[in-house]
Design goal:
469 residues, alpha+beta, seven-stranded antiparallel sheet, five-stranded antiparallel sheet, 18 strands, 20% strand, globular
Length: 469
Amino acid sequence: MLKDADAAFAQVLSDMGITVKPAAPSYLEEPRGIYKARPGFVALPETTEQVATIVKTCNDASVSIQPYGGGTGLVFGQLTWEGPLSLILSLEKMNAVRAVYPNEDAIVVEAGATVAEIQAAAAEVDRLFPLSYASQDSARIGGGLSVNSGGLNVLRYGMARDVCLGVEAVLPDGQIMHGLKRLRKDNTGYDLRHLLIGAEGTLGIITAAALRLYPRPAEIATAFLQVRDPQAAIELLSMFRARAGETVSAFELIAKSSFLQMAETNPDVRQPFDHAPDWAVLTELGMGAGADPETMMGELFEEAFEAGLVTDGAIAQSGQQRADFWGFREHIPESNYRLRAVASHDISLPLSELPDFVAKAPTELEKLMPCRIACFGHLGDGNLHYNVFAPKGETRDGYMHLVDDISKLVHDMTMARGGSFSAEHGVGRKKVAELQHYGDPGKLAAMRAIKQALDPKGIMNPGAILPLD
């Protein structure tokens, strides 16, 4: 129920020339349908100056702000359902590509541009913007930077933080931070760009970014390879990197369960193999003009086969087959969604610890419930999506009371091996308790001090990352 005071504040912003309207249902939902935000108002600024006006007005009136990107986040950082009602702030109207500098391998974009739109702008000047994930058609770069998103190409190009040269942002008091430098070297004090990236809108609103571009690989080879187990996959990755170096663009690990679930939920998606392997790796080499990645991929396949690391596989023979390979991988999250996991986890582990975790976690989980496990992810950077499902033929309803126990087990096993309970999706509101439980006390104290210094009224995305007071 919207209060008169909320409507009155919305009218104040409207009188300043800012578009403000009651939030449509799309602003109040998250992709998995677990939580819904309370009804409120959404502000839709068109310029950085309007964002500054909104933030200063909210700060002066002690009205909290809920930043909203593309709404694709999976840790509820874009929803408010407790505490004071927040004004939703969406930068969807600020989606311009401000400038492209192909000779500098740089592009300047507004925060409301989608990842796919930035990829397209880069392609127009024969460059590559490497961030790539399933939600890229709707995920906006401001949100992607705010959670330091990852994706398929982290192995070669790094996460969002690594492709960002500078940011323009509005700080909690309404000041504009003009930081859109395209420099690779700028040692002039604290790097506030990196403070804002990954802060999930709790320290300010990123309004624009200068991003790195890269040469587009002219020659590409893609292969789906069957491997004995995760340890063999890690040894295969080491072999690939020793021979092919930084041309290894992606290295995805997929367990048998994903092949079986895909056949169950998405039978129209072409399977790469006639029979589901126990484990498989989807990998890609990207090289410059005149190189021959297909020959190298073939040689690596033969070497790995002789070493007993690979038992079978297929090297894409056409652009369509390559698209089919990646189409299969990109449909796995959708398949998981259709089956409705009891508990989903976005974890990362040191590569040397990953095989032991994968081997032992199912046994421990079976002590809690009979289950199916979908284990897939970006092996090159140690990131696993580890999702627990009810047995085939059963729904998750009878097991939802075990969600906290399941996640605690998975996260305890992860943290005991030097891993992280949040690899690429952020903390949001979903994992606030985990951060308080597992987080280093010194780091948490520093985070609270930074939050208090920059946002003393606590208006910026309250309840995300750090708990509500």
